[in-house]
Specification:
Elements: H1 19-24, E1 38-44, H2 48-57, H3 62-76, E2 100-103, H4 108-114, H5 118-130, E3 133-134, E4 138-141, H6 151-156, E5 159-162, E6 170-178, H7 182-193, E7 198-206
Parallel strand pairs: 1-7, 2-3, 2-6, 6-7
Antiparallel strand pairs: 4-5
């Protein structure tokens, strides 16, 4: 059975996403994630970029999840957003070596209401594109959600515990949206606390200009 595919940005039938929507993506503001060995961001959480994230996060659209995972993999290989869409020879890129891809798990309430964890979906798609195994290396402590909270609450961040299987691993940590960076900073710290050899961060969308405070 064939299923119709529509662009997550404009709804155009035929491909997801369409070339025009990819071209319309806005460049993200830079962000700092304390403790991370590198940070890669794909686009701004505005306009078409917001539609892409909503299609993933609230509708669970598999086509945009695959494209976002491929794009996060390309960002790890050093391909910038301005070069999309394109095919590259991985042998000509300079990727930072990783052993696995993981994610900062969402709250149990969000997982129940949506039926899935969008960060896990992204991690699995990214790992498939990079031909490495995704692993659940983080456990969320508590039930507080970041979405919809103010800046002060966001900066305090959620809490995570790293699993022992992170020991000695070079990890690519992925997420859908980076706002203050608190979630990814907490996840990075947990992975490093569990003995990860390196933690590289990649997120699809950057929301606003609300940078994480500098660390002395």
């Amino acid at each position: 059975m064939l299923f119709e595919v529509r662009c997550a940005g404009c709804g155009l039938l035929g491909w997801c996403p369409c070339a025009a929507c990819v071209e319309a993506l806005e460049a993200p503001e830079p962000a700092l994630v304390p403790g991370a060995d590198s940070v890669a961001l794909l686009f701004s959480h505005s306009g078409v970029g917001r539609e892409f994230i909503h299609a993933l996060k609230y509708r669970g659209e598999r086509a945009i999840a695959r494209w976002l995972g491929d794009s996060l993999a390309l960002s790890h290989l050093g391909v910038t957003a301005s070069a999309w869409p394109m095919r590259i020879d991985p042998a000509s890129a300079s990727p930072m070596e990783i052993d696995t891809v993981t994610w900062a798990p969402t709250t149990a309430a969000h997982r129940r209401s949506r039926g899935f964890d969008q960060a896990e979906t992204l991690a699995r798609a990214t790992a498939k594109a990079l031909q490495v195994r995704p692993e659940r290396l983080l456990r969320r402590i508590g039930s507080g959600a970041q979405s919809g909270t103010g800046r002060s609450a966001r900066l305090s961040g959620p809490r995570f515990a790293g699993r022992s299987s992170a020991l000695g691993r070079r990890v690519l940590l992925v997420d859908d949206v980076l706002t203050t960076g608190a979630t990814l900073a907490a996840a990075t710290a947990a992975l490093e606390g569990a003995g990860a050899a390196a933690v590289h961060v990649a997120a699809c969308a950057r929301r606003g200009r609300d940078r994480f405070p500098a660390v002395a």
